[in-house]
Specification:
By secondary structure, the protein is α/β, with parallel strands linked by helices. It has two domains: 141 residues, Lyase, Ornithine Decarboxylase, Chain A, domain 1; 204 residues, Alanine racemase (TIM Barrel), CATH 3.20.20.10. It has eleven helices and 20 strands. The strands form three sheets. Strands 1, 2, 13, 14, 15, 16, 17, 18, 19 and 20 form a ten-stranded mixed β-sheet that branches. The protein has an eight-stranded parallel β-sheet with strand order 5-4-3-12-11-9-7-6. Strand 16 and strand 17 form a beta hairpin. Helix 6 packs parallel to helix 7 and helix 8 packs across helix 9. The structure holds pyridoxal-5'-phosphate (PLP). The site of pyridoxal-5'-phosphate has 16 residues, from helix 11.
Amino acid sequence: MTDPSATADVTDRPSGAAESVVPQRVREFLDSTETPCLVVDLAVVRRNHGALRSALPDARICYAVKANPAPEVVGALAALGASFDVASPGEIDLCLAQGAGPERISYGNTIKKRRDIAHAYERGVRLFVTDSEPDLVNIAEVAPGAQVFCRILVDNKGSRTPFGRKFGCPPETAVRLLRQARELGLDPYGVSFHIGSQQLDPAAWEHGISAARQVFEGLAGHGIALRMVNLGGGLPGSYTEAAPPLAEYARRIEQSLDRHFGADRPDLLVEPGRQIVADAGVLRSEVVLVTPSAADDRRWVYLDVGRYNGLAETEGEAITYRLRTSRDGDPCGPVVLAGPTCDGDDVIYQRNVYELPLTLRGGDWVDLLSAGAYTASYSSVCFNGIAPLATYCVDGDERA
Ligand SMILES: *Cc1c(COP(=O)(O)O)cnc(C)c1O
């Protein structure tokens, strides 16, 4: 799958600097628990939510629950007044149980069964995404009168984990679907797009906002006034490859909104997943073995976490986590990093060359930083008899 000969150097090597990144209370907790596990600092979740609220003060924040569905995370955000982007009945029930009313829930998955829509509607959810006629017809039938927005397909260039073509329709189709929504008795509310997750180009939203404007104009021609633009997710976490500051994303998004909507500003939604939780999490793993390899001049370091119990986003080495180890400060050399299972694809990094301490051996720990998003929620249940990645939340000095 990955080409080991095409090596790239990871410039932000693990170093003592990472030490200061992990707060004392999280370090203490990590040292007291079994590996592998994810520790999420709720204080950082709140701080990230606050930072986004300051950066985009006009946008309603709908946390994308799939990034980290720990009930404590959802509860902390619900207490701050956040809204939620959900993908299934399970996520709806989770948000309701954590104190978010149904008026704060947006059903943001274009792929849903009729009975999933009915489940949402029965619980009071009135906001649904769509991008196809069969889904729209289902919504009209089992969620009569609901607000709908249409997801359009946008270029995901600049994203480290693009969506491909699975979701969204062309703007012309959005115009047709939202007209049909009106005919079916629904409330055509607006347009959404997702510019691709871990989007490193703050100018990427320009395409989506411009295409959204096209849909607004298309519908205005039919006497329908849309009112909402959903900016989706894509805001970054902190991995080895530096991302621009949040303020730069906000500035470029505001510029695009001014350019395409001027004084006619629609309601704004934003659906952060990664930006809220990535930097709040540290994943502690243990070194199982360190072996020299005959076919390669690099040592192989096998961790007790890999592709199937938390590191799904290392597929294709899309996400390159920053590391710290219990032997930081000792001389380092290049390694191939791999997971613990009997699957040949369970190699974490071979194209990206990480350098780890030469003294590293079985029983030592390796922390993956900014691992709060798309780790525990992507963990398999029991592949090779390995339990799903456990999540613990700490909150200041309290432990949940
Ligand atoms: C996953 C998802 C998000 C969150 O994306 P991030 O890049 O993590 O911010 C937002 N909206 C929708 C519809 C999603 O599926």
